[in-house]
Amino acid sequence: MSDSDALLARFDEVRAHTERLAAPLSPEDQTVQSMPDVSPTKWHRAHVTWFFETFLLAEADPGFTPFQDQYWFLFNSYYEGVGPRYQRAMRGAITRPGAHDVGLYRRHVDDRVTDLLARVDEGTLDKVRPVLELGFHHEQQHQELLLMDIKHVLSLNPLRPVYAGSPADPGVPDRLRWVSFEGGLVEIGHEGPGAGFSYDNELPRHASYVGPYRLADRLVTNGEWLAFLADGGYHRHELWLSDGWSRVQAEGWEAPLYWTRADDGSWLEHTLHGTHPVDPAAPVCHVSHYEADAYATWAGKRLPTEAEWEHAATVSGAVEPAVNALHPRAAGPATGGLRQMLGDCWEWTGSAYLPYPGFRPAEGAIGEYNGKFMSGQMVLRGGCALTPPGHTRATYRNFYPPGARWPVTGVRLADDAR
Amino acid sequence: MSDSDALLARFDEVRAHTERLAAPLSPEDQTVQSMPDVSPTKWHRAHVTWFFETFLLAEADPGFTPFQDQYWFLFNSYYEGVGPRYQRAMRGAITRPGAHDVGLYRRHVDDRVTDLLARVDEGTLDKVRPVLELGFHHEQQHQELLLMDIKHVLSLNPLRPVYAGSPADPGVPDRLRWVSFEGGLVEIGHEGPGAGFSYDNELPRHASYVGPYRLADRLVTNGEWLAFLADGGYHRHELWLSDGWSRVQAEGWEAPLYWTRADDGSWLEHTLHGTHPVDPAAPVCHVSHYEADAYATWAGKRLPTEAEWEHAATVSGAVEPAVNALHPRAAGPATGGLRQMLGDCWEWTGSAYLPYPGFRPAEGAIGEYNGKFMSGQMVLRGGCALTPPGHTRATYRNFYPPGARWPVTGVRLADDAR
Amino acid sequence: MSDSDALLARFDEVRAHTERLAAPLSPEDQTVQSMPDVSPTKWHRAHVTWFFETFLLAEADPGFTPFQDQYWFLFNSYYEGVGPRYQRAMRGAITRPGAHDVGLYRRHVDDRVTDLLARVDEGTLDKVRPVLELGFHHEQQHQELLLMDIKHVLSLNPLRPVYAGSPADPGVPDRLRWVSFEGGLVEIGHEGPGAGFSYDNELPRHASYVGPYRLADRLVTNGEWLAFLADGGYHRHELWLSDGWSRVQAEGWEAPLYWTRADDGSWLEHTLHGTHPVDPAAPVCHVSHYEADAYATWAGKRLPTEAEWEHAATVSGAVEPAVNALHPRAAGPATGGLRQMLGDCWEWTGSAYLPYPGFRPAEGAIGEYNGKFMSGQMVLRGGCALTPPGHTRATYRNFYPPGARWPVTGVRLADDAR
Amino acid sequence: MSDSDALLARFDEVRAHTERLAAPLSPEDQTVQSMPDVSPTKWHRAHVTWFFETFLLAEADPGFTPFQDQYWFLFNSYYEGVGPRYQRAMRGAITRPGAHDVGLYRRHVDDRVTDLLARVDEGTLDKVRPVLELGFHHEQQHQELLLMDIKHVLSLNPLRPVYAGSPADPGVPDRLRWVSFEGGLVEIGHEGPGAGFSYDNELPRHASYVGPYRLADRLVTNGEWLAFLADGGYHRHELWLSDGWSRVQAEGWEAPLYWTRADDGSWLEHTLHGTHPVDPAAPVCHVSHYEADAYATWAGKRLPTEAEWEHAATVSGAVEPAVNALHPRAAGPATGGLRQMLGDCWEWTGSAYLPYPGFRPAEGAIGEYNGKFMSGQMVLRGGCALTPPGHTRATYRNFYPPGARWPVTGVRLADDAR
């Protein structure tokens, strides 16, 4: 298979996956923005298309004309360099183009990209390959967001709607074990283009000093979180960061987002499979950094730094779960090594999202992808159950503000080793 | 035709009209709430159905069971007496039931009402007739709201979508004339059940003293409003009520809602027919009470009181426009009497919305329809182009907060007569 | 005594009274603005001085120069016509001029006014007399505000500070009686210049039709309000206007402003005399229009209209209390007529604050005194315990937004008579 | 001098310095809170006193009774462990105790501490010494805050008040030079109790890897900032972090806080000496982290990390300015080494404020001093002109949210070395 054929096959696969994710959703489902952080499904479908149209077709397609002028304005997310954009918090006010018309837009751009790749010469191919690859990864990120966002949308509906499927059988709780690491002057960060795709924020690879430490071999479970609740975790100021305590009080947090009480006092959890009893063996998810930190304080431990996490993941190996699921599952049997490192919950670290030493943003509007968000956010590692297969890696730096709860976020404990 | 047949025919007609209004709207269009005051189309369709289900079927249908339990919660608007309700500002977060499922709900309730009316005895008929009639008028009010709301939704879309149809040809401006009234101790208010349907807020008929006055024979036109703009109307504090001036500055008002400037500096207006040049002969609409008052001050005149308006409408007759339109049209030729009294624009009066002397709210939850809103709002009279035929009358008291601009509101000048 | 001597004597008396009211307050007390509606004591002292400087001296004093240029900016309240002004909500950020320096400003303007009046000719005197008189009444209004505002400031201090004096002995509760009025086509409004001073909003005198009605002979008492509380008054939506119910819930109202619970569950009230047990015989005060309306609904009655109130006050006479107090006192013995009409609590009416028929605002910046506030407010009548002697009259129209609770506001019930 | 005598002498000195700083301020000046971040002068004076009363006297004075019960509530800042506290944003609503009464409170506590130290035994002295020392440093921090806060208060007054003194003569601009450091695996953090006082957040000393780097030998000047302005610095999104750009637009930033334009277009700066022309040679101050970062991006450089800063300060020495000033001054002549490291402006670093590896908060309520604020803030180093003499050190970690502008904050550039 030629290089351009391979790219096209990858393109088709990524693009089709987005449409598969949207398929269970009605036009109404695809339209709503339930809070400013959330985007409508049809906006995601259109925005990832806009990305290819703007950064690939407009640059490399000689006969390019935009599919629809105003789409450039409507489906730009935050690229100031590309021009003005429709304000984020109002994405849910846009009823047209509807879900069907967004499909037409997608097909149009797919056709143009297919045409382009069919007749591209080597030189152009070298030029467009990085943009295409970035577009694949960009679309995969939005696949994850699409699911997290629709989960929030559906959570507001008292009819308790189901996105798809049904929940896994309850898991078997097992005790948490610790895995130790010597640390020292370690290298973290992506090794660069030769080692496969990465975002600019994973670069450059660099030295970092890490003392001896140990990590929990699995994520904190719902059962453990229930013990935190039972011990007054959400009512004891001394466990919380000051900003976290303010949020607890201002927003009345009593449990993870999506937990509600059944009439008998037990806890239910809204999931993409509908609303079901909380499984004590499954990892807790939809907790903010504030909650993760308070839990760690309560447990007499702390969160890992991103250097610790990445070093451990690299040293001890970290593999994606075999089963692709819509909700994180209980850890498999203990192995002596680390479990649930990739593809279960995004794991809050104790590291602020800042540039690596020597970081340089990519050139042009694409340079707005990461660097300008390096303020006020915390790093998360490992991917989650909603992350599309193949989109996780040990060097991946995800980031959210410390109060975010709608992403699929969980907690792995860390500790100093003596 | 028997009494129950007549009621059923009226029921069918009202219900069918709602569905005709929704027909041009996609599921996505029907889902969005563009601001807290606006409700989604499918919510309107469901809420008016809930009204018949709650106040008619649940009371009078022996075999009644709710169509869907949670609908009672989702589609209650503000009736505290009926139980808790979904918060108003979040109506746009509800994707399911979708537009199609709301249709099924409507059909189910329509069938049950039809069944009920088919086999109803005289005694029950007397009991349900007032509820049915209130339900008709309630649904008509929501027909008007449905159009005003979708107009706002579509206005936020830079694609400039069209609801239906195309604009009327520009009218012929003519000069404003005055019609004088002697006033005195006049009677206003509805005459009660014998005189046809009314809301409780139009009762009781009562005496009110009105000095000699005169009214403009037609509404203020866009052309006249352009003169107000040209004379700095939106920039001269001395023309404005203090609250109005604060709003002008806080929200940057420069013209009526829905007016935007074309590239050549001329004014365009968003309508249900799409975006078109402002017609100088048509009445200005989508202005707040603050703007109406400032304009009147600028013109050296004032707004009519509701007693003046109603007395004049009664004395001189007021007829609905022959043509049903989606946008107010230029006044017809001068007649010596009052023009454009009904069915063009809701006309701001200088009267606060307060209970008439001797007012008593209706019994039960239906008593929440009007009385509890008698605070902080101004009375408007006359109906507008979006009001369904047969829903206007001289005694009708509409009301909005003085800053509201999304209803179809216009201005008729008044003056003291000497 | 010559005319100018009489004016000067009145000037001296009004000016001295302000300083007497400020005397018990420390420089710190005089500086604070506890919420946007409240102004600092020293601002009141300076603003009323600015009024004489701007509208009297700057107009009529040939050698006029401003005392301090920036004072024009700092101490303008809301007169847009006079130029820009320091934003109202930030009055409490201004530490200088301090209380002492404001005293110097006052003395300077007092001296200039004294000089002016000493050598004024007849023609000028005729010109300045209306401004002086308006200035007297303006300063008296601010005397009342000064006390209401400092009461709010001191209420936020957990040390429970005292402004002055000590509370009256508890009164003797007596039952409420009704006084009936025939109504008809009555005249209300001030009779104009010949009949003494009035604000422009009391003009012109005009006819108004009033049906037969009756008024409570005294204000609602704290004891009656306690019965309202005990009957769930603050928790029953059906008693409340919709806007009122929203405020109750948003701000957690459970009782009148300034009521707090003692450890034994009894109610205490913050007053200018400090914090003391609520006196069941004294009139309830510091209730909003929403609360007044809910109470009246609960009692099966209503609030009077302003025409009813004024007509009754005129017909039956209304006198100020003999004792000048800092807190409203229990009504004296029943008389068969109306009690507590003037000088106890500002009485909420059911009338919105709107222009009288034929109202014309005064010319120039002074015309901003009243007219531009005729939106979104309710009329109150009768004056309160903090109103300076001589400042009340039957035609006086006070006004506040329906949610205001920091003025000394109370409730008189009304009812239709049959 | 005995150990307790030495402590007492230090106590007297610190306490007297606070009162010297407050001396030029009127009671009115001392009362106002101009925004939630600012505290009134008299609150600072009382709060530092409360600290000694709560953490020293209440623990160690056998006959302890509180000076005034409610003061515990009023003057607690954020110590949840000590009990409820008066809400921060309302500190400016408290008029009593006034400035004079706070003086009495101070004297009372001073007397009790003096008594305690006069008769303290060795064992107790060992126990109270750390609390006293923390109290000294705590009061010094508030001395700096007192000046920064009153600077903000006075800035809102259009009369342009002066706190004290007059500005230095304009400095002589000189070019910026770079000082290089090899970096490597360096140690940072305080060496612990044996090495003098530190806060818990400076502990423990630990290894950190730092690549080769260079630092600007002086702070960025006003002159350089004017070049940034002239080059559109506040209008070019590509220079800014996303959160920073939002703030620029939401708050209309056009220049550092306290800069205003004179009528001739030149820039003036509000200082504690009054309002004066900006000195191009003096360091820019009152810029947020967002502005510091944008400037560094514009200059093609970056901010130093806190490890880089501390390593450089330790390696190359860093001394406080000889002259104690109320405003940062132009750098002295170039030395080949680093200038302006201590006591000019707090220097924004690129490091988020997070716990050092192995950090443990102090025991008890005093443990709330630092640890709970380790979220959402950036580290600043070096002290500023308002920092009291002796309160700076190379390991000191100050912290503010990235949008803060009212502290005396400046910018030192850093760069990678090759």
TrEMBL record, chains A, B, C, D:
Q: Which UniProt keywords apply?
A: Iron, Oxidoreductase
Per its UniProt entry, which superkingdom is the organism in? Bacteria
Tell me the ranges covered by the DinB-like domain, including all copies: 11-144
Matching InterPro entries, A to Z?
Answer: CTDL_fold, DinB-like, DinB/YfiT-like, EgtB, Sulfatase_Mod_Factor_Kinase, SUMF_dom, SUMF_sf
* Classification via Pfam families: DinB_2, FGE-sulfatase
Query: Could you tell me which residue ranges the Sulfatase-modifying factor enzyme-like domain spans?
Result: 178-328, 334-414
Q: What is this protein called?
A: Ergothioneine biosynthesis protein EgtB
**Does the record's keyword annotation contain Ligase?**
no
Q: What does the record give as its pathway?
A: Amino-acid biosynthesis; ergothioneine biosynthesis
Presence of the UniProt keyword Mitochondrion in the record: no
